[in-house]
Structures are given as structure tokens and as C-alpha cells.
Amino acid sequence: MPDVLSIVLGGGKGTRLFPLTQARAKPAVPFGGKYRLVDIPISNCINANLRHIYILTQFNSASLHLHLSQTYTFDIFSTGFVEILAAEQTFEHSGWYEGTADAVRKNFVHFRTQNPSWYLILSGDQLYRMDFKDLLQKHRDSGAAITIACTTASREEASQLGILKADRNNNITEFLEKPGPVKDIADFKIPSGLSGVKTDGYLASMGIYVFNAQAMESCLTNELTDFGKEVIPHAISNLKVNAYVFDGYWEDIGTIRNFYEANLDLTTLKPRFDFYDEDRPIYTHSRSLPPSKMNFSNMNQSIAAEGCIITNASISNSIVGVRTIIESGASLNGVVCMGADLYESEAHKKENAEARVPNIGIGKGTIVKRAIIDKNACIGEGCRIGVDDMVRNDGNYGHYYIVDGIIVIPKNAVLYSGTII
Fold it and tell me: Does 18 fall in a domain?
């Protein structure tokens, strides 16, 4: 569908996912053992035959650029592309992207060369599987200038989301950004008989928009910088804006707690998001790694990605990412382990031993509970992480963090043998 231009917004700092975003853009954060968050929107586009895709990047974007360049290369007989548009200085614009809408505005010079009829605006940090063909068809049938994909939300969930008021014809009449738990929003409740809605509650914006090309141009002939906070509320008073109600699973992976819980949900018997869908796969970088090897180990309700070597260990309710090495006697329970970017050579391991630095992976006899272990972490022998009855307040503790009560071992961290957290 060359008349649809897909734009994935990936330029934010991702402060709520810090320290996972300390050295990478939020869409580049590893997920599910082998994927990156950005793989979700791109795969949804590819599965809908939408192959003209721009990724807008700005902050900590090197690893995101590397992943995209290694992963998404279409054949020479296709006009499709996944192209990165990093923030750049031009004679017209000398500053950084000031928000989601500003990022689109500053790249019109590139978008117009594709002559799109519609723009599909997507976020780079959400977990869902949506039929974009149906979304686009409903948008065309509605005659709207803009369509906003919505999900139903409870009153508690609505306090932290953008809430929409719609009539029975799915026309959006009002928008309210993050009303909080106190504000009275009873008049925003979903009207009975609204098409596509099977429950009561509120309509929350998913941050997924379809714009007619002309509407996009007219909406951005100003200084408004953010779609959710400014452009959409302003457009509602001037244009026909339609609600597309999505009834599938959707999770905004914007916080450490959401990230942790969404990962561990993948290990359940019936996960809310299912990667095991051959008709609508989630694509990612093909690494050509060997199968994972389990030596005398016990794995219960867990996922192990490619290239792992797990020896005489006990793994429960955990994600074990690519190239993870887990040594004898180790135990993981409720752990999201992102794995490693490389295998250490024997010469490098010898250097580690001489310097008394642990190898990449999890050492002998180490016990880890309720934690996120970022890539290339070196965890020594006999460590106890999240095990002992200790008061753990949120904060930066140098070689580790505690966020939302969850221990986070940052990328490339070194925990020496016997460390207790």
C-alpha cells in the first residue's frame, strides 16, 4: 500500500524506563529475550503490507540505528523501505525535535517525496498486534480527516492516559490528557451502543493515528509540538475525528514496572500477547545463533532465547535472553535477563580471572529474584540479589538501581562475587 506512509516515533528520552534507556533509545530496549520494542510497530506494518516506513530518532539512537540497519532490508524488487530519519540541522530548522508533532513537521521535506494519501503515526514503545488494514479501511469509510485508535480503560487506568469523548457514531467530540484520579470525568464514559465496544468505562487514546495527508499538513501549519497534548485537541474542534475501537491486548511499556510485568506475562501458559502466531509474526534481527543448551537444569514456565548455555541451574518464571551463560548452582525466579551482545573468548576469560572480574553472565551459586538484568552484565559467584529480607528503597545505588521496587542491573554492570543486594 504505497499510498500509506507509516511513521514510527522513536526520538524521546524514555526517562520513565531509565536506567534501561541510559545508553539506548526507548524503542531499542530488548524485549522478550530476543526482540526490541521497535520490532512491534514495524512488524504490524509489514503484516499489513505497509512497507514505506520511517523511524524518527533523536536521543541515544546509535543502537537503534544498528538494529534497524541489520534487520529490515527489503528485496530489490520491492519499493519498500524502513528508513531512519534522525534529527538534523537544516537551513529551515536548526533545533532538535521539540515533540512528536514537531518531529513530523520537520521531516515533511522527506515525506512529501513519497506523495502519500494517508499518514499512519505509531509509537515505538507499545506491545500489541493490530490489523492496520482494518484500521485504514474504517478510517476511509468514516470520511474522517483523522482517526484515533482507542482502547477501553477503567477509571484507574484512565487517570494516566489521554481520554476521549465520543458519540454513538464514533465521532470524537472532546479530549482530556491524563485527568488524574480526582477529576470528575463521568461525562467521558463510553456511551451505550458505541460501535466496537463490548464493555463500559472510558476510551483511551493508544497514540496511534491515521491522518489524511491534507489534514496532516493543515494541522501542522503552526507551532504546536505534541500530537496528544496539542494537535489532536485542536483538530477535534475543526475537523471530523473518528474513534477506532481496538479490543485486543495493548500495553504501553512506558515504565519499569510495566516493562517487567509485560515480559514475565510472556512466560505464562496463556500470555496476553502471543509471539507464537505464524500468520502475523513479529520480526527481529536474525543472528544465526546455535540452539540453547540446557545441562542438568530445571526450567519452569520460562523462556530461553537462542545461544544460551545453562548448566545445573534452576530457572522459574523468567526470561533468559540471547547468549546468556548461567553457571552451576545458579537460581533465577522472576527475572528478566536480556543476555549478551557477544561470547567472551577463552583469552578474555583468562584476563578476567587474573583481574578477578567475573565473566559475562551469571556465576556459580548466584541467586536472583525479581530483577531486570540488562545486557552484558557480569555477575560473579555466590551473589544474592533480591533474596534476603532487606529494605529496598527506590534509587541509584551505583552499580544497580531500584525502580518501582524492582532491582535493575544496568548494561555492562559488574557485580563481584559475594555481592548482596
Answer: yes
Is 389 contained in some domain? Answer: yes
Same domain, 11 and 126: yes
In which domain, by residue range, is 229 found?
4-265
**Could you give the number of structural domains in the chain?**
2
**pLDDT tens, residue by residue, 359-411:** 999 999 999 999 999 999 999 999 999 998 777 789 999 899 999 999 999 99
* pTM: predicted TM-score of the whole model, two decimal places: 0.92
Say which range, 151-165, 206-220, 280-294, has the weakest mean pLDDT.
151-165
Cβ atoms of residues 158 and 215 within 8 Å: no
The CATH number of residue 305's host domain is 2.160.10.10
231 and 85, same structural domain?
Answer: yes
In DSSP terms, 395 is beta-bridged to 402
Check whether residue 254 and residue 323 sit in a common domain.
Answer: no
Query: CA-to-CA distance for 282 and 131, rounded, in angstroms?
Result: 13
Q: Is 420 a domain residue? A: no
Residue 215 half-sphere exposure toward CB, CA atoms < 13 A: 22
pLDDT digits (tens, 9 = 90+) for 114-172: 999 999 999 988 999 999 999 999 999 999 999 999 998 888 887 788 888 888 888 99
Q: What radius of gyration, in Å, describes the C-alpha atoms of the chain?
A: 23
